[in-house]
Amino acid sequence: GHALGIETSCDDTAVGIVTSSRVILSDCIHLQSHLHEPKGGIVPTLAMVSHRKSLPTVIRDAVEKARVDVLRDVDIIAVTRGPGLGPCLGVGVDAAKSLACVLRKPIIGVHHMEAHALTPRLLNPLLSFPYLTLLISGGHTLILLTRRVNTHTILSTTIDDSIGEAFDKVTRLLNLPWLPGRSGGPGATLERYASLGDASKYNFPIPMTKDKSQLQNSNMSFSGLKTAVKYLIEEEKLDVEDEEVRRDLAAAFQYAAVEHLIGKLRLCIKECCKGELDVRKLVCSGGVARNGFIRERLNKLAMEYDLELFFPPPELCTDNGVMIAWAGIERYQCGLIDDYFFEQIPKWPIDSLG
Ligand code: ATP
Ligand code: FE
Question: Where does the Gcp-like domain start and stop, copy by copy (predicted)?
Fold first, then answer.
């Protein structure tokens, strides 16, 4: 069967159509970054108005591009139910419910982070449950034990900023231009600078490594690291318009952030990749999973622990409609169908599913 997936949780309006035999028929997106970049962050009401304007034509484009007859060929409608910005989620949920109800198709409300976590299964039928999932994105930093569809245990999460937020804030501290939406946004710019810099020029402390109790604590923290970058610039009166300073600061920040991630991942691997559970697979997804330095570092870690590593292709790491359609198919196959009255859930912990 075919699924149509609608994603409006944040600033991009995205619709994708996917088949249960893993063919991506269309992947359409309307970007809003030009609206929010001058404001220095996402403005929820602007985002909602933009979704309301664009969603109908993005749905039409996705249907035309897929060359499907919605009534005949589309079997389920899937939509992001949460987490995300309430007013933005509402636009997608309303459209999806109307479509599904009128067309008499089942509707599936999808958890956005579960969709990120299931995306690699769309591309690789060999990826079976259970697996460890590292979700690194604009709003979340999570290490999960993904047991099956709808069942994820949180092993580690950030106690303050997400890693994506930290990348975005440091991009701003360094006064760097943003790459446009689907090229990765601010984080991608920072990575480009970091790849040309010398990480050993500056030494940022790796978060949560002060003492033994911090080292053994599986939680993550990225706000202190961002503040350390800010203070260093101020105290040393560093010239952030200087390209070399920018590159070296970007590299040193990226190094510390990724070392932190790897350290906490190690704790979770030690917990789950042994004994009865013996997890042998690691998935990394979410916008920050586009980062080449992180991919390289994770490759090494996976080799060290003899884990199989799975990433979505870069364009399916950041938000898209395809991942929502695929998560819809996965949930449908487990009998997880919703009614036509459900509401969005802006704050929705992934371990409360099921
Ligand atoms: P969430 O999924 O938590 O709701 P979101 O949907 O807004 O958040 P995504 O689209 O999954 O986030 O990811 C966007 C984030 O990914 C941004 O913070 C962006 O800067 C970051 N990002 C994109 N490319 C890269 C990269 N190459 N290196 C680091 N960060 C990146
Ligand atoms: Fe996302």
Answer: 24-326
Among protein residues, the one with the nearest Cα to ligand 1's atom 16 is 287
Residue bearing tokens 């695929």: 326
ipTM confidence:
0.99
Question: Among candidates 26, 2, 1, which has minimal Cα distance to 14?
Answer: 26
SS (H, E, C) 93-145: HHHHHHHHHHHCCCEEEEEHHHHHHHHHHHHCCCCCCCEEEEEECCCCEEEEE
What are the Cα distances from residue 285, in Å, to 40, 133, 192? 25, 8, 19
Per-residue pLDDT of 267-287, as tens digits, reads 999 999 888 888 999 999 999
Tokens of 41: 């962050």
Take residue 120 and report the two structure tokens written for it: 């690699």
Which residue from 346, 352, 349 is spatially nearest to 83, judged by alpha carbons?
Answer: 346
Over residues 139-198, the pLDDT tens digits come to 999 999 999 999 999 999 999 999 999 999 999 999 998 887 778 889 999 999 999 999
114 lines ligand 1 (CB under 6 A): no
Q: Sheet containing 131-136: give its strands across.
A: 151-157, 141-148, 131-136, 281-285, 308-310
pTM of the model: 0.97
CA–CA dist 90, 8 (Å, integer): 8
